[in-house]
Each structure stands twice: as structure tokens, then as C-alpha cells.
Amino acid sequence: MSDIKTQIRSFIDKNFMVPASLGLKDSDSLLDHQIVDSTGFLELIHFVESDFGISVDETEMVLENFESIDSIARFVTEKRSATSVAGA
Amino acid sequence: MAKLPGLDLATETDRICERLREATLRTLRRRGLVVAMSGGIDSSVCAALAVRALGKERVFGLLLPERDSSGASSRLGRLMAEFLDIEHALHDISSTLAAIGCYSEQEEVLRRVLPGFGGGWKFKLAIVDLMAGRIAVTHLVAEDPAGKRYDQRLSPTDYLKIVAATNFKQRVRKTIEYYHADRLNYAVVGTPNRLEYDQGFFVKNGDGAADVKPIAHLYKTHVYDLARHLGLPESIVQTTPTTDTFSLAQGQDEFYFRLPYGQMDLALWHLNEGLSAAELAREIGCDEATAERTYETIRAKRRTTAYLHAAPILVEPVPQVSR
Q1: So what's the ipTM on this one?
Q2: Is residue B319 part of a domain?
Q3: Could you tell me which chain A residue has the CA closest to the CA of B128?
Q4: Chain A hits for B300, Cβ within 8 Å
Q5: Residue ranges of the domains in chain A?
Q6: Which residue of A17, B263, B299, B311 sits 20 to 30 Å from the alpha carbon of B198, by its own alpha carbon?
């Protein structure tokens, strides 16, 4: 999980230039801190699909899954485990 | 249906016309105004105000259709120019857009995303957000010649490429508007209403570029009221707002605003007046959570589109030319 969070944070830092002074925590809302806008969410969804090899269904494109680094990591972990169970 | 508080239309018309005269002749030091006329309510009202402010001899109308424009836009644009009895010209910009790659760049994405896409197909972009915490996602909606519909989520790269290619349309139109403005020593009128201006529903250096924007402070509801006050033809006043940008017909609420314009107007007005989401909910008949999300969407759009309004950023001010 922590490796996933590191990858997500690295993507966010690289693409959205989060100021260090903000002290963004893994649980902080990317929306409330005005880090990600609507195009940014599209990029985030594309990133998790391409880098973690999962497919995000339309019904899963909710803030609950993409609000923070924590929620994205939780979503990716659950999707991966569901995929591996289905494939077993 | 709930409606915005009314405007004193006669007073407002006089105020805008006085400002237009002063802006054109004194501030901008130009002799008249160029208005691109799409046949929609905003450009029609702007053209009518320009004529009232400066006289029909000092207003030049432009009809700038391209191959994806609806036939209605040119017909209504011409009707309005003839109604105002102003000099006008028609430039079909399709060949310019083809030469610059507008259509081929769009089609490169379309053929890749939708195998089989080709002649006779139509398409548009549509926002799918479905409210309740959903992230707004743009879909490609296409229709084949037999009328079968296809609906496909786009990757960010493909979405941005289609938008970028489509923006050629507004930028080419603006280039032609400025050609005529330069030739006549006129200024160019921008035609956004307040909803579009506030929410950034325009293309930077495209339809967002202008010398004067006479109705940018008016809610769309008031633009319709003004159209009736100015006696515009009923066929203009009755038109449904569309983007007239894609080959498949697309409502503005489908592409950009999440609600029909009347409700978006009310939401923006309530927010601007400092009224609560509960009051908006009562007014438009939705639950409070939906009203709050609408407020948040408006605020988010302001943040996202702030750069469209921004002048180029300098490393330090140049006080000799800064205003």
C-alpha cells in the first residue's frame, strides 16, 4: 500500500506541482486544496489505469475513490485484489 | 418557473449604448464595431445594441459558418443582419479549417477511438457527471449514417486533442473579425453573456478575444429580456442555445453547464447575492445537497478557467504601459 501511495504522490507532485509549504497529507482532499481540477481528475484516472493496470468503471469515478492519496491507494488496492481473485 | 429579478430594460439599454459609444470612439479610438453573428441570442443582442449605439452605418456583421455549423445559424445570422440593415459578409471558414488541420486532427482521434468512423458520421463531446459525487467525465458521442449511437469515454490526451482542434474554429473566426476590424478601423465586439464570461465558456484568443464585451455583465435571462425589449425577430428570441461547434447537435448544458441556462442563471445569481444553498434549492426545486454541489461547481469552474481571463504574466510589471 505504501508503495502505491508513493507512486500516486510522485505523479501528483510531478503533474500538479504541490507546494511543499502546503504540507499535503495522504488524507487531504485534492479537491479542497485546489490541487486537481476536472482535467486533472481525468489525468489521475488515466494514470491509475495505465500505471496500475486496472480498469476504472464509470460507476467507480466518484470522489470517494479519488478524493485523496489515501482513497486512491485504497481503491487501487481493492481493484487489484478483486482482479487477482477473479483471475485465480 | 422561478426567474431572476427583472431589469429596467430601457435604462439598461441606454447605459450599455452610452458605454459602447464611449468605448469605441474615445477609449479605443475606432470608428465602428465588427460583430460576428451566429444567429444566437447573444450576438444578435450585441449587434442590435451596437447599431443603437453607433448607427447602422458603423456596424459590420460577419457570418462565419463552417461545415459542422447548423444551417439555422447562417439563416438566422443573415436574418438578423438584414433586420438591422447593416453591411455584412459571409465567409465560409471550412476550407481554412481543413487547411490548418482542424478536421483531420479531430478525425485522427475519432477513427482510432471508434473504428469504422468515416464519412456521414456525426459527433459531439458531452459531459457525464450524473451528480451525487461523480467526477465529471467527457464522453465522445457519435452517430453513424444509419443513426446508431456510440458513447465512448475519452482518455485525457484524446479529449484535449479534440478540444484543441475544435478551438481552431473560434480562433479562425476571430482572425477574420480582426481582418475586417483593421480594414475598417473598427473595434471587435465580444458577445459572451455573464454566465459564459463568469464560467469561462470561451476559447482564449478565440471568441474570448475582443475589444469590448457589452453584455458580459448580463445574466442570460436578462439577455433574452433585452432581446424582446429591442424588438428582435421572434425566430431569434425563440432559439435554443447550442454550441453550434460539433456536427452532432449539442446543448450548452450538455457540454459545459450542468443545468439548463435558466437554472444556471439562478444558481449564479443566488451565489453572487450571497444567498444560501437552501434558498437556491427552494427556488429551483432541488435538494440542498444538489444546490451546494452546483455552487461548488461554479466556484470550481471559476478557478479552473481563471487563466482564460488572465493577461500574459510578466516577470515584473512594466509600469510605463501597464494600466
Answers
A1: 0.76
A2: no
A3: A58
A4: 31, 37-38
A5: 1-11+35-82
A6: A17
